Amino acid sequence: GYMYLMESLADAEGRVWPMCGVVPARAVMRPRRAALGYREARTLSPGPFGPAGTLLRGHEFHYSALEGGSSTLGEGGHAWALTASDGSVASEGWALGNLVGGYFHAHLASNPEAARRFVAACLAWRQCPNAQGSG
Questions:
Q1: Cβ contacts of 58 within 8 Å, gap of 6 or more
Q2: Which residue from 17, 35, 50, 79 has the least number of CB within 10 angstroms?
Q3: 94-110: per-residue pLDDT in tens?
């Protein structure tokens, strides 16, 4: 889903495919795995998982790398501050309004309150008069 939200995806042969264009960056497939491991993440802005600073645990596994976008990835900033199992720290992902995307895969059982907030955010969006499928 994260790569689909980007402007484009460059495949292993170098062909570029247009994507949704929501995240101002592109994914480039690499011949080797770009990331693998357990992560702890803290949200850097408020969103559907809760306030800024919400802690989640999960993993990261992907063969693509993000290219383009500024260091702050625009007005929304980064979604996560990740701490890898090797102790390294990096900012990753995209957050803007109720959109949160990234290579990090959260295991919501690691923070049941974040899971409840996510479900509540989904239900609140469903009640919005402008939500697709709401009426």
A1: 38, 39, 41, 104, 105, 106, 107, 110
A2: 17
A3: 877 778 888 889 999 99
For residue 133, give the 3-state DSSP assignment: coil
The alpha carbon of residue 118 and the mean position of all alpha carbons in its chain are separated, in whole angstroms, by: 14
What is the signed CA dihedral for 5, 126, 45, 2, rounded to 10 degrees?
-20
Least Cα distance to 64 among 16, 26, 94, 90 occurs for: 26
For residues 59 and 3, give the distance between their C-alpha atoms in angstroms, rounded to a whole number: 17
pLDDT at 7: 92
Tokens of 113: 């309150």
27-79 per-position pLDDT tens digit: 999 989 887 888 888 888 888 999 988 999 998 888 888 887 544 444 556 67
The amino acid sitting at 24 is: P
Distance of CA 47 to the CA centre of its chain: 12
Of 67 and 4, the one with more pLDDT = 4
Q: CB–CB of 78/52 below 8 Å? A: no
